[in-house]
Amino acid sequence: MSEMIKLESISKKFNGKEILKDVNFEVRRGERFGIFGPSGCGKTTALRIIAGLEKPDIGKVVLRGKEVTSSKTFVQPEQRNISFIFQDLALWPHMSVKDHLDFVLSFRISEKNQREKKIEEILKAVNLKNQLNSKPEQLSGGEKQRLALARVIAQKSDIFLLDEPYSSFDIDLKEEMQKLLWEMHKKFNLTTVYVTHDIFEILNFCNRVARMENGKIAEIKKPREIVKKYFYKIAKSMK
Amino acid sequence: MENKKIIYIDGKKLFLGIVLIAIVLIGFLLYTAPKEEKKVVVYVSHDQDYSEPILKEFEETSGIKVEALYDTEVTKTVGLVNRLISEKSNPRADVFWNNEVIRSVLLKNENVLQPYCSPNGNDIPSVYKDKDCYWTGFAARARVILYNTEKISKEEEPKSIYDFINPRWKGKACISNPLLGSGSGLTAALFASLGDEKAKDLFLKMKENKVQVLESPSMVRDQVVVGECWFGSTDTDDAYDATAAGKPVKMIIPDQGPEDIGDLVIPNSVMVIKGPAHPEEAKKLIDFLLSTKVEEQLAQVALQIPLKSSSSVPQNVPKNIKPMDVTYEEIYNKLNVSSKFVQETFLR
Amino acid sequence: MHDSFKYLIYLLLFIFIFLPIVYLFVSAFFPNFQLVNLSSLWNYLIFSFDSRIGVIFFRTILLGFFTSAIAGGIGLTLAVLLEYTNLSHRKFLKFLLFAPFLIPPYLFTFSWMGLLGKRGTFTEIIFHNMPLNIYNPFAIILLLSLSYFPIAMFIISLGLKNIDSNIIDSGRLSNRKNLMKKIILPLISPHLLIACFFVFVLTISEYTVPAFLRVNAYSSEIFAQLAAFYDIRRAAVLSLPVVVLALFLAGVIHFYFRNKSFTTISSSSRKKLNFISLSKNQKIISYSFILLLTLFSLIIPITMVIIESNLTFFDAVASAKTQIFNSFLTSFSGALAVTLLGFFTYYFFKKSKSLIALISFPLAISSPVIGISLINLYNNSQVPVYGTVWMILLGYLLRFLPFSVFIFSSFFPQISPSIEESARLSKSSFFKRIYRIVLPLTKGGFLSSFIIIFILCFGEVGLTQMVTPPGFQTLSMRIETLMHYANYSHLASLSLFLLSLIFFVYLIHIWVYRENE
Prior knowledge:
CATH superfamily of the largest domain in chain B: Periplasmic binding protein-like II
Helix content of chain B: 25-40%
Shape of chain C: globular
Strand content of chain B: 15-25%
Number of domains of chain C: 2
Number of helices of chain B: 12
Radius of gyration of chain C: 23 Å
Strand content of chain C: under 5%
CATH topology of the largest domain in chain B: D-Maltodextrin-Binding Protein, domain 2
Largest interface: B-C, 69 and 61 residues
Distance between the termini of chain C: 32 Å
Radius of gyration of chain B: 24 Å
Oligomer: heterotrimer
C-alpha cells in the first residue's frame, strides 16, 4: 500500500458558499505533499477534512487504505492516528512543556519512568530540554513551534498535517524549523501534508504540490513547475 | 516574564472534587428522602407559629412522626389547596388542616377528601361540620372591624360592614384582598347573604368611597395600628395580636344588631385526604386536633373561638357571636361569581 | 463517546427543561389526554382570553418594554464605561454594580416600600401627608430596571470584550468620530438585543413586585387563577401567550442575526482596551451616575433592611436555623447540578443559537406555574422524586439553566477550538479531554456559574414553595411567611442574613476570579 491519504470528490459548503469543489488527490507513503494557494482557497478545510475535524458534504477520505469518511462511515479524529500542527499551534496554556508530552504519551506508555525517559528523548531531539517546566507563554516563537513539533512526534503517528505552521516567522527561523521538520520526516518515515501560501516553503520542503484555486485543485506538479509561473510574474513586475 | 501568582486548579482534581461533592450531596439527599416509619403527612394552612407546637405535642404523645407542610393564608403563593388538587390522582398528604372552611367544601367537591366522623367532633354544632363528615370545623375566628382609638372615638366607632361605604370615612378604611384568602370568604359570604345585586352594589360603593385594598388581614391590622387606615376589616387573631401588644386599637364584632346580617365565623377545619398512605395515623391526628385541649390552647394563644361545648372559653375571647344566616356550602357556591366580580370590576 | 454523551445531554435537557412545560400545556389543552373537539377547545380559548385580559396583557408588555429599554440603556452605558474608558477601579465597580441582581426582587421591593410606602420611613419623617404614591406601574418599571440592569450590563460587556482589539484600533485610526455608532454598536447589537430580551422576559413573568405594588399585571392574572379560582388548566392556558411571545422574540433575534458575522477574539492574548479617555468633568459625571445607581439599587435597600431589622437579628436567625441549613443544602446541590448541565449544554450546543433561546423560554413562565408543571409531571410518574428534595433541584434546573449557559458563553469564546482539537488528535478520550484540557481553561466559568446560581437558588421562593416536600422549609420560604404575618423586624433580620450571605459568597467569587484572571 503506497497510498497513505486519498481524497475522492470532496466538496464542502459553508453558509452557502462553496469552499471545496470536487477535490481529488492522493498522497503516497513518505511523500512531502504540499497544498499551495492564496488565502481562502480551501487549503485548511481540506486538511481538516483529512483529520476528521470537518465533515465534507460529498466525497470520501481514505487513510492507509481504509475508508474513514464517506456517506456511510465516519471515523472520529482521535481514532485516525494523525498528527496536526495548527496555524496557531494550539498549545495548552495551562500546561508546561513536560505536561504537554506527558499528556500525549500517557495514552501509550503507562509506566511513569518510561514516559519521562521518552519525554527527555523527544525534547532533546527538538532542542527544548532546558524548558521542561516552562509554560507556553514563557517560550519564544521558535520554542513554541518546537513544542508543537515535539507534541506531534510524541503521538508517534505516521501522518503529519501542517497548517501554515511558519507563516508568521522570519526567513531564518523558517529555515531552521523546516530543517528540523525535514529531519523528523526522515527519521520517522513520515507522510506529510504541508499547507502554505509561501512559494519558498514549498520549494524548500515539498516533493509534490497541489495548487488550489477557488476550492478546486488547479494542478498537481513538482514544486519547481508550480513556482516557475510565480517567478515569471515576479520578474515581470520588476521590469 | 512577570511573576504572576496563579491559583492553578488541576482539571483532574477539580473533576474528582466535583465527583466527591456530588457523592456527598446525593448522600444528604438520600438522608432527607422519605423513610418508611410511623408517620402522618399533614398540610397546614393555619399559622405556623400556632400550629407547629400543637403538631409537635401530637408527635411526642402519640409517637407518630409528623411531616408538615405550611402555607400562608393570603397565598401570595398558590397554596396547598392547589397542591392537593394537583396531587389528587396520587395523594401525598394524609390530612389537611385548613384555617377556614370554604376551601374544604371546594376540596370535597373536587373529590379530594374521604369522610371521617371523629368521636371528638360529636360535641361540635352541626353547622360547623360537613353533614357527611368530609370535614369538621373547630377553633374559629371571626371577621372583625379593628379601629384606631386615636383617630376614632368610642361614640363614632364603626359597627357594620356598611360603615365602609359611609362618606364620612371616605379614604379612611381598608380591607384585605377580596380575591384571596379570608377576604374572598367574606366577599362570597356577603354575596350569599345579601344576594348578588346588593353585594355588588356594596362593593362598588366601597370603591367609590376609596376603601384601600391591602394584601392580607395582617397588613390591615398593621395599617390601622399606625393610623394609616382609621379602621379596617381583619380577623380576630390578627386583631388580638395588636390589642394584646397594647396598641391603640379596638376590636368590634360587626353587624350584631337584631336587624343586622351577622358576622362571618370562620372555623378551622380538618379532613382526611382520599386514599391516604397512613389512614390510621391520619385519624389519630384528627382526633387529637378536635380535642378540647387543642381548642383551649388555640383560644389561649391565638384567640380562636372554641366551638366544642366541652371547651372552656377564656375571658378575652369573643362569645355569643351572631353568625351570618348562610351555610358554608352556600358561601362556597358564591365563590366563583363573587371572585369574578371582584377581579373584573372591583379590582380593575 | 463524544456523540453518546451529547445525546445524553439532549435527553437530560428534554427531561428537565422541555418535558414538564410541554406536559403542562398538553394536559391543559387536552384534559386527561383525550382529544377534544376543536370547537369546544376554541370556545374555551375565547372564554379564557377576553378584552380585559387583553388590556392587562398589553399593559404588561409595555411594562416589559420600558423596563428592558431602561435597563438596557443603563447596562449599555455602564458596559462602555467599565470596558472602554479610563475610569479607575473598573473591576471593583463591575462587581459592585452586578450585586443588585443578586438581591431577590421581592426583598428589593420590600425595602423600597419600607422607605416610600404607606408606612415608609421617608414618607413618615419627611412628607407625612405627601401624595407620593409608589403603587403604580412607573414604580414597577423603575424598581425592576434597578434590579435587572446588572444582567444587561453583564451581557453587553461580554459583547464588548469579545470584539477583537484590532478591529477597534483600525476604527480609531480611520474614523474615530463614528467608531461607536458605526463599528462598536453594530458589533454588539446581538448582545444588546439579547440583554433586552432577557430583561423583558424576566419582567413579564415577575409577579411579586406587581403584587406588592398593587398593579394588576398579567402574572397576577395567572396567579389569581391558581390562588382564587384553583383553575390550574386556565393558569396554564393563560401562560401560553407569554411563552409564545418569548419564543417569538427569541426567534426574531435568531433569524435577524443568523447570517451576520461578528468577530470573536482570537486565541492569542487579548489587549485590555480603554481607548476612551474621559476628561475630568466627564469622569465626575460618570462617577456620579454610578454612585446614584449604587445608592438606589444597593445602598438604600440594604440600609432599609438593616433599619427594619430592629436589632432582632440573632433571635431571628436562631429561630430559622433549620431553614438556613436546608437552604444551604438545596442551593449547593442546585448550583452544582445547574453548573454541570450548563457547562455541557454550552459545550455541545454553543453553535446552536436556537437551543439557547429554547432553554430560556421557561423564564417567561411564572414560578408557581412551573411548580405546578413539575407537580403534574412527577406526581403521576413512576419516578420516585415527588415529595422529595429532588423536586426543588428539578425546579432550579428549569429556572436557572439559562443563566449558567450565559456565564459559560463568556468564558468559552476565549478558548480557541484548536486547543481542544489538538487534544482530540492526541487520541485522548472524551472525559480526559474535558478534565485535562477544557475544565482547567474554563474553571473561571465553573466558579462564576456555581456561585451565581448558588445565590439565585438561595433567594428563590415562588417555585420552591410549590414543590417543597412536607417537613422541609427553606429560608426564603420563611421570609415569605413572615411577610404575610407582617412581622417586619424578623423579616428584615432574616433578609439581612440572606443578603449578608449572598454578598459574602459573592466576595469569595470576586477574590477567586481576580486571582485566576
